[in-house]
Specification:
By secondary structure, the chain is mainly α. The protein has 15 helices and four strands.
């Protein structure tokens, strides 16, 4: 599949080449803003001008996609990243950046997801390669949006095919993003939780990777483990037992007006909703997989008992009611 630049018309074999090629001297065939904006661009654009131009083009591409142009998603990420980059340069405490991101995160995620459903994993593989999270010192600004689409299709593949059908590249991408994102990149960390759906993959050990990064990444590992229960509750409870029993995981986090909580206790938060019908993992955003597949989940009695035995063996039942339920494990 070739990809065409919307500005200069040049064709490229991969999204990487499309993303990196230089056609700055080529003017768009149609205006992207007002005459004043065009004049300011010719004289040297400000970040606000650049943002407005990218946002206008992004709107155009998304509208084209909605009208049936299946090639439009190939340019949306570049324009989205350009708009975010320009917004980041505006000195307003990040308000403009947040406004642009949350205005388009869902629409671009939806477009990427729909394109992936139409063409298969090959599309997302090119996107992951073009926006490699390890290529630069900082993650590409569109990383949360890519992770959202990857997560949706990872879940869908597991539910409609098998864990073996999930590309290793997708699991490696989400794991790398989680490791690279850092503690302050909350939205990015949240969008990778679907990584748990890869548990049991024969060529990529999700369990080993989560175990390796649990001490440094507890707030991502715990909700990822929650996802793993919906994918394979038996493999997930094996991992939960391994983690809670590992006394080398000795970190804690502070809570206002309460005692510090051990990481191993926080891991049990993953079981909060396993015995209810009104709680499902909230990531990836804008995607209710349980509604798409009319999915139901029933915790096996033996798995439930293993979790209860684990809580008691670790002594974490001391602060729970005598008749504690799984919701009492929530933090």
């Amino acid at each position: 599949m070739t990809h065409e630049c919307d500005d200069c018309g040049a064709s490229f074999e991969t999204l990487t080449r499309l993303r990196l090629h230089d056609c700055e001297d080529v003017q768009p065939e149609t205006p992207v803003g007002s005459a004043d904006l065009e004049q300011s661009q010719s004289a040297g654009s400000s970040p606000a001008d650049e943002r407005n131009a990218s946002v206008a083009e992004l709107d155009t591409l998304l509208d084209r996609f909605s009208d049936g142009d299946r090639a439009a998603p190939h340019g949306t990420l570049a324009e989205f990243e350009s708009a975010l980059s320009a917004a980041l340069e505006e000195d307003d405490g990040g308000e403009t950046y947040r406004d642009v991101f949350w205005r388009y995160h869902e629409r671009v995620s939806d477009a990427l997801d729909e394109a992936a459903r139409a063409t298969g994993w090959s599309f997302l593989k090119e996107v992951m390669d073009a926006y490699d999270p390890t290529a630069d010192d900082e993650l590409p600004l569109v990383t949360p949006t890519i992770a959202n689409a990857v997560g949706r299709n990872l879940i869908r593949t597991r539910l409609t095919e098998s864990v073996e059908a999930i590309p290793v590249a997708a699991l490696e991408y989400l794991d790398t993003v989680a490791v690279t994102a850092g503690d302050t990149a909350d939205t990015t960390q949240e969008e990778v939780h679907a990584y748990g759906w890869g548990i049991g993959h024969p060529d990529h050990s999700v369990a080993d990777r989560l175990h390796a990064r649990v001490s440094e990444d507890i707030f991502s590992v715990t909700p990822t483990l929650e996802h793993a229960f919906y994918a394979d509750q038996y493999a997930a409870v094996d991992l939960l037992e391994t983690l809670v029993r590992d006394e080398s995981i000795d970190g804690t986090f502070s809570r206002p007006a309460r005692d510090d909580m051990p990481y191993r206790r926080y891991l049990l938060d993953c079981a909060y909703g396993l015995k209810t019908d009104d709680h499902w993992p909230g990531m990836p955003r804008y995607y209710d997989w349980y509604e798409e597949f009319d999915d139901t989940f029933e915790l096996d009695d033996t798995v439930e008992q293993r979790i209860r035995d684990l809580v008691e063996a670790a002594g974490f039942d001391a602060d729970l009611p005598n008749d504690w339920a799984f919701r009492d494990l929530g933090v």
